[in-house]
Design goal:
Length: 149
């Protein structure tokens, strides 16, 4: 059984109380449950994590890369939060490991401030999803499973 890595970046631990008009009422624990159910449905093992620290995300991407090298990774779904718009390090980590990556955002970043319109992740992502709310997570898991063929 291959593993789906789902990594969440800064402030996503505040889901449920953070700007509910933008991000909804679901907590990160709710999101993990949605993702776990989708992984169970699609025969994937789930590694679901959140951190507020950029370097921790880099380390976890490297860990996913090691699984990839062993043929044990389905891919990475990453909501890098604000680091999406700033982090060359995340771009380099995804590129350097060669993993299949889906970039995910809960909100439609293109309907928001201009500084959210640029992503350092998109050029190294296989696919980009935004604006589906937290339901984007199970949709992304289904897409990742589909990419396995
Ligand atoms: C986000 C969008 C980012 O612009 C923002 O910084 C976040 C969350 C989203 O899920 O919609 O923290 O990635």
């Amino acid at each position: 059984m291959k593993t789906a890595f789902i990594l969440n970046g800064p402030n996503l631990n505040l889901l449920g109380t953070r700007e509910p008009g933008v991000y909804g009422a679901a907590t990160l624990a709710d999101v993990e449950q949605l993702a776990a159910a989708a992984c169970a449905q699609h025969g994937l093992k789930l590694a679901f994590r959140q951190t507020n620290h950029e370097g921790q995300l880099v380390d976890w991407i490297h860990e996913a890369g090691q699984l990839h090298a062993k043929g044990e990774l389905a891919g990475l779904i990453i909501n890098a939060g604000a680091y999406t718009h700033t982090s060359v390090a995340l771009h380099d980590a995804i590129k350097g490991t060669g993993i299949t990556c889906i970039e995910l955002h809960i909100s439609n970043v293109f309907a928001r401030e201009a500084f959210r319109h640029h992503s350092y992740i998109s050029p190294v992502a296989k696919a980009v999803m935004c604006g589906f709310g937290v339901k984007g997570y199970p949709l992304a898991v289904a897409a990742l499973a589909d990419m396995q063929g």
